[in-house]
């Protein structure tokens, strides 16, 4: 398991953060996604054997938001 932080811009309301979280949870290999609207950040726990960081970034962008990998926590 790995945990990363992703900066997400373009979210303006709770519905935005919910749609980002739902999009991330639909990715095969993502086990947990927590989106913080006010911090413009998503914390994602995933299996690197099933999904890549770039796939996570692209999923957020496909949902209509900008994304940038900020940090790997562990």
Tell me about this structure:
With 74 residues, this protein is of the alpha+beta class. It has one domain (2-72): 2-Layer Sandwich (Alpha-Beta Plaits). 30% of the residues lie in helices and 38% in strands. It has 2 helices and 4 strands; from the N terminus they run βαββαβ. The chain has helices at 14-25, 53-62; strands spanning 2-9, 30-36, 41-46, 66-72. It has a 4-stranded antiparallel β-sheet, covered by helices on one side. A hairpin with a 4-residue loop joins strand 2 and strand 3 (41-46). The mean pLDDT is 94.
Outline:
With 74 residues, the chain is an alpha+beta fold. Helix content is 30%, strand content 38%. It is built from two helices and four strands.
Q: What is the C-alpha radius of gyration, as a whole number of Å?
A: 11 Å
Q: Which regions are unreliable across 5 or more consecutive residues at pLDDT < 50?
A: none
Mass-distribution shape: globular
Strand order of the largest sheet: 2-3-1-4
Given helix and strand content, the structural type is: alpha+beta
Helix content: 25-40%
Sketch the major β-sheet. 4 strands, antiparallel
Beta-strand proportion:
35-45%
Element pattern in H and E: EHEEHE
The CATH topology assignment is Alpha-Beta Plaits
Kindly state the number of beta strands: 4
Q: So what's the CATH class?
A: Alpha Beta
Estimate the mean pLDDT confidence: 94
The DSSP helix count reads 2
| Total number of distinct structural domains | 1
């Amino acid at each position: 398991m790995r945990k990363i932080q992703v900066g997400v811009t373009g979210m303006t309301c709770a519905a935005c953060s919910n749609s980002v979280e739902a999009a991330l949870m639909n990715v095969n290999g993502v086990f947990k996604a927590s989106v913080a609207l006010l911090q413009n950040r998503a914390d994602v726990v995933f299996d690197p054997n099933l999904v890549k960081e770039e796939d996570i970034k692209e999923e957020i962008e496909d949902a209509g938001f900008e994304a940038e990998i900020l940090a790997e926590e562990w």
